[in-house]
């Protein structure tokens, strides 16, 4: 039985919580089917990256315009939206978008340290990324976090340049450059968990995180789902709008409460 009061306190303190076994067998299978739908229906901008040509694959895709065709049933039957409400201590819960990852075929680089909140144009207490793995992962192979980093500062997130993980995504943003957290690991209290399929890790948009590399023989399939709640406002940064709210920048002012028909309310069901 999950101690939600403890998880809520940990999320507020650390910006990240691990909830073992949140997804039952059928719910995990539904999440995997959604992930497979994304791989079978890549967005045009990312479809070419699925052509491995014998090289190790590090593929990710997100914001499919028809995501609910492949995800609605899974989302509506999942315990994840209610879990978001539990760790925030408030509802409703709205779905924003999906992101799928596939690493396989040899050595792939680690996912650089970054904060999702530095490019998603919203902020507030009620934001969460739900991270799901479809393979068991040892602690050293799992996603890593810096507890408390959601309290600030916000950095100009990584451009994911293989030559420099700290290169900013947009030099024009009035945000400080990302420190080299990987080179300074001993200066930070980094946490990670061994995870099994069915576990879910929730973290705040502002929480600093990065992923371990893969080695030959490893395959890593992960799905992330992003949600927001009542205490979330418009905060343009690297992106001014989102694909499911393309006129966000003209309809909202910084600080305006987030609401739009393009976001699916999942909990409580309207």
UniProtKB/TrEMBL annotation:
<dbReference type="InterPro" id="IPR008775">
    <property type="entry name" value="Phytyl_CoA_dOase-like"/>
</dbReference>
<feature type="compositionally biased region" description="Basic and acidic residues">
    <location>
        <begin position="161"/>
        <end position="174"/>
    </location>
</feature>
<dbReference type="GO" id="GO:0016706">
    <property type="term" value="F:2-oxoglutarate-dependent dioxygenase activity"/>
</dbReference>
<dbReference type="Pfam" id="PF05721">
    <property type="entry name" value="PhyH"/>
</dbReference>
<dbReference type="GO" id="GO:0005506">
    <property type="term" value="F:iron ion binding"/>
</dbReference>
<keyword id="KW-0560">Oxidoreductase</keyword>
<protein>
    <submittedName>
        <fullName>Phytanoyl-CoA dioxygenase</fullName>
    </submittedName>
</protein>
<feature type="region of interest" description="Disordered">
    <location>
        <begin position="154"/>
        <end position="174"/>
    </location>
</feature>
<keyword id="KW-0223">Dioxygenase</keyword>
């Amino acid at each position: 039985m999950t101690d939600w009061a403890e998880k809520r306190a940990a999320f507020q303190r650390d910006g990240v919580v691990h909830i073992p076994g949140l997804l039952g067998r059928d719910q995990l299978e539904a999440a995997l089917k959604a992930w497979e739908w994304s791989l079978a229906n890549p967005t045009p901008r990312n479809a070419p990256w699925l052509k491995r040509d014998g090289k190790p694959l590090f593929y990710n895709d997100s914001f499919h315009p028809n995501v609910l065709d492949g995800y609605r049933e899974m989302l509506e039957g999942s315990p994840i939206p209610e879990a978001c409400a539990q760790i925030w201590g408030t509802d409703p819960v709205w779905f924003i978008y999906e992101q799928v990852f596939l690493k396989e075929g040899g050595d792939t680089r680690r996912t650089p340290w970054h904060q999702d909140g530095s490019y998603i144009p919203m902020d507030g207490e009620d934001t969460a990324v739900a991270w799901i793995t479809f393979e068991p992962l040892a602690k050293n192979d799992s996603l890593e976090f810096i507890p408390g980093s959601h309290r600030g500062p916000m950095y100009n997130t990584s451009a994911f340049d293989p030559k420099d993980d700290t290169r900013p995504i947009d030099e024009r943003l009035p945000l400080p450059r990302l420190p080299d957290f990987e080179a300074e690991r001993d200066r930070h209290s980094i946490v990670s968990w061994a995870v099994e399929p069915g576990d879910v890790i929730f973290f705040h948009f502002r929480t600093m995180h990065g992923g371990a590399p893969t080695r030959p023989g490893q395959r890593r399939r992960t799905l992330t789902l992003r949600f927001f709640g009542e205490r979330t406002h418009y905060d343009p940064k690297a992106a001014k709008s989102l694909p499911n709210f393309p006129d966000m920048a003209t309809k909202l002012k910084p600080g305006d409460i987030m609401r739009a028909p393009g976001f699916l309310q999942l909990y409580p069901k309207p």
